[in-house]
Amino acid sequence: MRRNVQVLLLVLTGAGLLHAALLTDVCLRFVKEGLRPALVASGALLVLLGLVAAARDGFPTARRDRADRRSSAPGAHGHGRAPGVAWLLFFPALSLLFFTPPALGAYTAAREAPPPATEAARAFPPLPGGSPLPMTLSEFRLRAGQDRARSLEGRTVRLLGFVTPAGDGGWYLSRLVVSCCAADSRAVKIRVYGAPAPPADTWVTVTGRLRPGPVPAAEAALDAERVRVAPEPADPYRDAAPPAGD
């Protein structure tokens, strides 16, 4: 790989990072929102380094092309040339510019082991008024299993997530949340009863009530009153409540 191509790869990679983190929300399919500034800074630095290298080398110059040809001649040492496999680095660089990968979804959530046994009951702050009450899946699951005041009983709630098929023909409303990036994602799942399963990975809002009875350690459950298809959120790895009145 010639020097001018190496500089081009540097600029393309930086531009791809800026496109993914500054101009679009593509970066949120890989990392959490808090890391966006670091990606923007990294992309800007790569572009700057590439432009500086291009200006310093007179990019491209006939003299450098002749030097590259001499370095590839038989018996030449070939100093400064990268191996041919380095051309493969163009694929991830270009993918940041032209390809939007899907977020992790039902396949990942379905294969995650059940959570550990529910912790002891504890007190929670009172729920706000309004019906249906928008909630995150995480809060619903925690209150269902640990709230000693049973504040969810009798309350109609609205949850947002994607559909994950269950092995017995039922389904879960799921979210994947991350601590840093998609590689450390963990699933939050709510079992849904009373409504047929939409296709896997479909984003939906589910309106319903906590299913009566004891909450199993591995899942909380909801009796659905209404299921509506919803657009995928810009940040699919943040467990956010649906907008009020959605």
TrEMBL record:
Residues 152-237 form the DUF1980 domain. It comes from the Bacteria. Keywords: Membrane, Transmembrane, Transmembrane helix. InterPro entries: DUF1980, DUF1980_C. The chain crosses the membrane at residues 39-59, 80-99. This is TIGR03943 family protein. Residues 221-246 are annotated as: Disordered. The keyword Transmembrane applies.
